[in-house]
Amino acid sequence: MTEEEIIRLVLQGKQEKFSLLVERYQQKIFGLCYKILGNKQDGEDAAQEVFLKAYQKLASFNFNAKFSTWLYRVGVNTCYDLLRKGKDKAQEVEWDKLEVKEEGPEETFQRQEGLQEIEKAVRKLTPEQQIIVTLHLFNELTYEEIAKVLNITPEAAKMRYYRARISLQKELMTKGRKEGA
Amino acid sequence: MTCEQALEYLMRKMENDLNHLEENILTQHLAGCTHCAALAQELEEDQGELEKYFQAVPPIRADFTERVMAQIKKEEKRSFWGSPWLKAAGFLVTLGLITALALPMLPNKEPASPKNPISQIAKLEVAEQPVTPSEQSASQPEVVPKTVAQEKEPVSPPAIGQEQPEVPTVEKEEQAAQPIQIAQAPEVNSNRGMMMRTLVAKNVPTLAQQITALLPTDYVLAEERVDTGEDGQTKAINLAYTLEGENCLAISLAQENPEVGTGAIVQQLDNGLTLMVRSEKLSGEELEKIVDSLLTLPLTLR
User: Fold this and answer.
1) Between chain A and chain B, how many beta carbons pairs sit less than 8 Å apart?
2) What is the pLDDT of residues B207-221, one digit of tens each?
3) B40: nearest CA in chain A?
4) What CA–CA distance (Å, rounded) separates B117 from B209?
């Protein structure tokens, strides 16, 4: 069944069909939220909110566009709102928790992957930079697709990504990551 | 080439977005700029780590979909109890109860006279349906698509050996409004959207006259009587109705004991009917916008 068919069925009242779209996109939306918000619980809560909003706004979906683009836009807006509300708090608390608390499965996951330094550098980016880097490197969207999600031109999407990538690189170099590597 | 330009070229190189000429220019710059050369090496080494980081996402919880659907159901219930639809339905149920209580107090009516305002609507194509004897006497005119709006004055239906009844005009009638009953809309296999609205048209108590007053008959494709009481009075009509080129499946208009030209009016000011519109192509929201733009005065929307 195509996505358009599923959406039409949901709009006709077959609510249960929406679960097919949730199944199809849950990992991608969760990954986006997880990478932007920084932990699994927040990521799952945000992803749940994304799908709820998508369901509530489904009547406004334009069938000329791709559903994934539309859904990512809902996801980005949700994460952006959450980041603006709780970013400071996350920056105060998150790194302390990572250093002192007992390592949970999530931290083990990161550590085993040797990625904690990169995590810290990513957290130093602005919300807009985190979102665009995540959309490109995790969700693997092209610049054209990112442009549609963010409602900007593909050229602007490309330049914003480049600037975010360069900021990330400077942050990695500033932390002396390469020392002794 | 400046170092700033070189940085942009380095980023594009990672995306395989450089042509041969641009690559050559970059290579030349890196050969002469140790800073950019070191940066190029860093970028290349870290790109792999970055990609690894961004792909490192734990699996989502196994019951995620169930939780989402449960939350959707919960939100739907919460919005349902406060919805205008429910309030409208509550109003209609109340109206139906008042009607049921008031009915025993009404004087007996004459059987439906041959005059049938439906004939005004019958200018349009008529679906094949059996008619009651009382309606047969006011035989249907030639089926010619024609809008009632084009008629200057009420038109009497051709008679079959029957005295031509006087078709009442809206101005002549001071009839009490009829109680309202919602007809069962026809079953349809699928409908994309639906809207339901209670409409009130003052001083147009009969079913057919309400159709005329409330809905531009240009758009009516066919009518079909779905419920005719024992007294021959039409209780409901299904109309195949087109809205801006999209065929709606049906509009059901229902009225209990409609006034067909003579007799008492039960509720003069509260007369109204429920307009229910379905479409295979349009959503409920789109239907509402279109119907809003089509409905004519005098009219009160609830």
Assistant:
1) 103
2) 555 555 555 555 555
3) A169
4) 7
Strands B246-254 and B272-279: antiparallel
Angle at which helices A40-56 and B64-81 cross, to 10° = 50
| Cα–Cα distance measured from residue B57 to residue B52, given in angstroms and rounded to the nearest whole number | 10
Write down the ipTM of this complex: 0.82
d(CA A146, CA A136): 8
Q: From the list A16, A19, A172, which residue is nearest B46 (CB)?
A: A172
The helix (H) or strand (E) run that includes residue A169 is helix A154-174
Listed residue (B276, B282, B200, B280) closest to B238, CA to CA: B276
Q: Using one digit for the tens of pLDDT, what is the confidence trace for B173-228? A: 444 444 333 344 444 444 456 666 665 555 555 555 555 555 555 555 555 555 55
Contact A26 B64 (CB under 8 A): yes
Nearest-CA neighbor of A115 among A53, A172, A62? A172
